[in-house]
Automatic annotation (TrEMBL):
Keywords: Metal-binding. The lineage of its organism: Bacteria, Bacillati, Actinomycetota, Actinomycetes, Micrococcales. It comes from Leucobacter komagatae. This is 2-keto-4-pentenoate hydratase/2-oxohepta-3-ene-1,7-dioic acid hydratase in catechol pathway. It comes from the Bacteria. The keyword Transcription regulation does not apply.
Length: 326
């Protein structure tokens, strides 16, 4: 099943919707089950577990025309505000290309005296353990309060001249726990979505030059962590490590890749992370950026304005509009 969060024209109240797979209509589950708290939001549905999914499946099989919503009569919202966001190192092939570009940017745009080769070795050494599949899954935190909606307008952030997208597959955690076994781990995944980890490349390079890491204020600025347009349940995607992924900018394909680049699976991530700390239902975990899934790797820059569309097979298109700051 494919779930969305939306509101109707003239009514800003968020509602939970179920795609009827005809490409035209959705079932308003909040209206279909007005007395059931499991359908008050997508997070409530995740918390309801199997009971909520069973009721949603019944609504899918027995369409009620009174609660159908035409696609053109709804505005998509962010699926939900995650209880926690982690950007994991499940795909790391993007890193070496980005590190090369970062080293080149520093040599060309700063007074740093080190050579490109020296900078590359030093920066690459920071991340080299992540390239080894034997290394337990690592992650970086993201701020759930910076989630934004599909089709939203993103103002170019002040203080940066190099805004960049990052194409990622993401999993939604459906059950919490600690010390989750490999045999149980997959059952803790609720479903999958498309994630864009917006980044400021010039800020990121300056942070790296100062020894302040690769993230910091280069991430988590307002509206910088969109995911969507829907959440697709786990059963709809039996092989999440075999999905085509692509990026279009103003209608032109800029990058293509595949989730086959993952060196760890989501169940492995569940096993590894839950062995270190508790995980909870309602978390969103990114894979890390697919190779060629950012403009920085390609030596390109977004125009202003730009329509950026991230697409993953079997899930859909996460689109956002980038405009210059007024």
């Amino acid at each position: 099943m494919r779930f969305v969060t939306f509101h109707r024209p003239g009514d800003p109240t968020p509602r939970l919707g179920l795609d009827n797979t005809d490409g035209e209509t959705y079932t308003d589950l909040t209206a279909r089950y007005p007395e059931d708290p499991a359908f008050a939001s997508m997070l409530a549905l995740i918390d309801a577990g199997g009971r909520g999914l069973d009721a949603a499946w019944e609504a899918y099989q027995k369409l009620d025309e009174a609660v159908l919503v035409e696609q053109d009569a709804m505005t998509l919202l962010a699926p939900f505000t995650p209880r926690r966001m982690r950007d994991c190192g499940l795909i790391v092939s993007h890193l070496r290309q980005s590190i090369s570009r970062t080293a080149r940017w520093i040599t060309e745009h700063t007074d740093d005296a080190r050579s490109y080769a020296t900078l590359y070795r030093q920066l690459d050494g920071t991340f080299s353990p992540l390239y080894d599949p034997a290394t337990p899954v690592q992650y970086a935190e993201r701020n759930p309060e910076t989630v934004s909606a599909p089709n939203a307008v993103l103002e170019w952030p002040a203080g940066s001249d190099y805004l960049d997208y990052e194409l990622e597959l993401a999993a939604v955690i459906g059950r919490g726990g600690t010390y989750i076994t490999p045999e149980e781990a997959e059952q803790h995944v609720f479903g999958y979505t498309v994630y864009n980890d917006w980044s400021l490349r010039d800020v990121q390079a300056r942070n790296a030059l100062a020894g302040a890491g690769a993230h910091g204020n280069a991430k988590d600025f307002p509206e910088s962590n969109p995911f969507g347009p829907c959440v697709v349940t786990r059963d709809e995607i039996p092989d999440p490590q075999n999905l085509r992924m692509s990026v279009r900018v103003n209608g032109e394909t800029w990058g293509e890749g595949s989730s086959a680049q993952m060196i760890h699976s989501f169940p492995e991530a569940v096993e590894h992370i839950s062995a270190r700390e508790p995980i909870v239902a309602g978390e969103v975990w990114g894979t890390g950026t697919v190779r060629n899934g950012s403009s920085f790797e390609l030596g390109r820059r977004l125009p202003r304005p730009a329509l950026v569309e991230l697409e993953i097979e079997r899930i859909g298109v996460l689109a956002q509009y980038v405009i210059p700051k007024p």
